[in-house]
Amino acid sequence: MSKPSPDVYEQGKGMDAHNAVMREVRSRNDSTYDPREPTRVWLDEDNTPDGVYQSLTIILNTGGCRWARAGGCTMCGYVAESVEGGQVAHEDLMAQIEHCLDHEEENADEKSGLIKIYTSGSFLDEREVPAETRQAIADTFADRERIVVESLPDFVEDERVSDFVDAGLETDVAVGLETATDRVRHDCVNKYFDFADFEDACEAAREAGAGIKAYLLMKPPFLTESEAVEDMKSSVRRCGAVDGCHTVSMNPCNVQRYTMVEELYHDGGYRPPWLWSVADVLESTADEDVIVVSDPVGHGSDRGPHNCGECDDRVQRAIKDFDLRQDPSVFEQVSCECEATYEAALAREHSYAMPLTR
User: Fold this and answer.
1) For position 5, what pLDDT does the model report?
2) pLDDT score, position 253
3) Is the separation of the CB atoms in 239 and 248 below 8 Å?
4) Sign of CA dihedral 159, 164, 165, 168
5) What pTM, to 2 d.p., does this model score?
6) What per-residue confidence (pLDDT) applies to 80?
7) CA-based Rg of the chain, rounded to a whole angstrom?
8) Residues 194 and 206: beta-carbon distance below 8 Å
């Protein structure tokens, strides 16, 4: 990427301009949501420093990310699913937790050892999830083994993390870092903090007795496919070098509603990443001293990470296999004629003429 002149960061430009666009796009959303129903809940398997666990993943419906209310990230549509009014009562949040426990009882043979809790913003932000609710959730899941809660670096503090550590849970804080490159995070993702803030959050979590799981974003808007691949490889390595960060989850960008990415997508200015790119990053960073996983949401669809359509499911299965075993040889078992098109896109795509392929 070219380097900007200082004036692009003046008021009304740069991040201010991104926020203005995002507020306008999100204002088109007129949907409403029940504060007693979670946004989503599902069962899966996850690789952790202590091995593979059955996991119960919970996305709580809260009042929404405070950064998103200012404008927010270019790719994130989760705030569009949040409850209006800015806050959800303790009783309603606990009703959502009960709904998720019922889902687990109906669909799993046994309780999940790993609980993962997300919101449309930061679980550790007490404007989204009050301290009373955080403690009650820690008590509810004290009989499990591990828990992951998501937060921006700002809210990773000892007293907020220790509720789970003190309950005897192996605790990880998932931080939406997106990239280790500050320029990409600021100008492509429209996220305000620096990599140094992520390092501080890792230190705070470690001092509280918790670990860090870094979430990275494969191919934010305004990057070519090759730039996105190189940024991810570099970001995985930089995260792996930070004390306390034991896992990196690389999330290929998908086109969510009421986002800047969706606007670009409809105008022909954005293509979600190739699944070949995901495989390349995982294979290239397999030797790093960090668990690297990926979950290509919406794989095979036009709005999600995809190849040609013929090989998408095969590559997705290889990615899932890698997540659980961390064995890069799984990618040697998948191939397709579309790899030639992919290689051409890597070599020939430029920022002034992208996406080169759909």
Assistant:
1) 46
2) 97
3) yes
4) positive
5) 0.91
6) 74
7) 20
8) no
- Residues contacting residue 79 through CB under 8 Å, at least 6 positions apart: 26, 64, 65, 68, 69, 72, 120, 121
Q: What was the pLDDT predicted at 11?
A: 52
Cβ-contact 57, 123 below 8 angstroms: no
CA-based angle 201:205:208, to the nearest 5?
Answer: 145
Q: What are phi and psi of 146, to 5 degrees?
A: -135, 155
Rounded Cα gap, residues 351 and 287, in angstroms: 31
Contact (CB, 8 A) for 161 and 205: yes
Residue keyed to tokens 């008590």: 139
Q: Which residue is associated with the tokens 């599902």?
A: 42
How many Å apart are CA 261 and CA 257, to the nearest integer? 9
- Whether the CB-CB separation of 180 and 195 falls below 8 Å is answered with yes
Question: What 3-state DSSP class applies to 311?
Answer: coil
pLDDT under 50 in the chain at which residues?
1-2, 4-10
Q: Do residues 77 and 257 lie in contact, with contact meaning Cβ atoms separated by under 8 Å? A: yes
Q: How many CB atoms lie within 10 A of CB 10?
A: 10
Matching residue, tokens 């299965």: 317
Q: What is the dihedral angle through the alpha carbons of 31, 34, 35, 37, rounded to the nearest 10 degrees?
A: -120
Q: Taking the alpha carbons of 173, 179, 182, 186 in that order, is the dihedral positive or negative?
A: negative
Q: State whether the Cα torsion 180-186-189-193 is positive or negative.
A: positive
Q: H helices within the chain, ranges in order?
A: 14-26, 66-70, 90-107, 131-140, 158-165, 182-184, 195-207, 225-240, 260-266, 275-284, 312-325, 339-348
Question: Angle at which helices 225-240 and 275-284 pack, to 10 degrees?
Answer: 30
d(CA 336, CA 308): 9
Distance CA 73, CA 57 (A): 22
Cβ proximity of 74 and 261 under 8 Å: yes
Please state, in angstroms and rounded to a whole number, the distance separating the CA atoms of residues 42 and 57: 5
